[in-house]
């Protein structure tokens, strides 16, 4: 599987340039698409010898990765708060699943955190399954480690499980490259979960003075739960 370079506008967050060899697969992401110039925080990879050191660079080239219709990959991850192991199969009975890649320290996540909780509480009552995953390395960001994840989940009363992807394999399987990153899947009967929305929470950013509403993600969830088609025009995170 070919690895593509991550991209971002000049004022955005930096994504990572990855090796293209199969031996480097465990330290590579499959980026998803171009990012807005306000950007988000990239997930930080752990590097181990003899894999070539990852380089950070900025570019305006579009990246390629998961597309709509992508099937949710299997995962088995622990929830630091409770110690429980969660898998994709735990959500099989739900008509829709929202997978969020977040972390503790990211200012863009902090900006949305309370509203992510509000949105999740609202739609979980309507039948949406929600799970959050942190894939950041505790070596580079100790504040994103399991102990602090548990404290964060308790402090903000997360209604969803907040799972730790220590190996970062799950982030690679999803093609997640930044935080926050939202993947909304729908399920028809016994069919696997299929991706129907991979876009932003809303237009608000920490520095643009736009009120947080969750509009973009809310509209997508409303469509999924009501059986309506979702617009293919989706703004990147």
Automatic annotation (TrEMBL):
<dbReference type="GO" id="GO:0016209">
    <property type="term" value="F:antioxidant activity"/>
</dbReference>
<dbReference type="InterPro" id="IPR036249">
    <property type="entry name" value="Thioredoxin-like_sf"/>
</dbReference>
<dbReference type="InterPro" id="IPR013766">
    <property type="entry name" value="Thioredoxin_domain"/>
</dbReference>
<dbReference type="InterPro" id="IPR047262">
    <property type="entry name" value="PRX-like1"/>
</dbReference>
<feature type="domain" description="Thioredoxin">
    <location>
        <begin position="66"/>
        <end position="226"/>
    </location>
</feature>
<dbReference type="GO" id="GO:0016491">
    <property type="term" value="F:oxidoreductase activity"/>
</dbReference>
<protein>
    <recommendedName>
        <fullName>Thioredoxin domain-containing protein</fullName>
    </recommendedName>
</protein>
<dbReference type="Pfam" id="PF00578">
    <property type="entry name" value="AhpC-TSA"/>
</dbReference>
<dbReference type="InterPro" id="IPR000866">
    <property type="entry name" value="AhpC/TSA"/>
</dbReference>
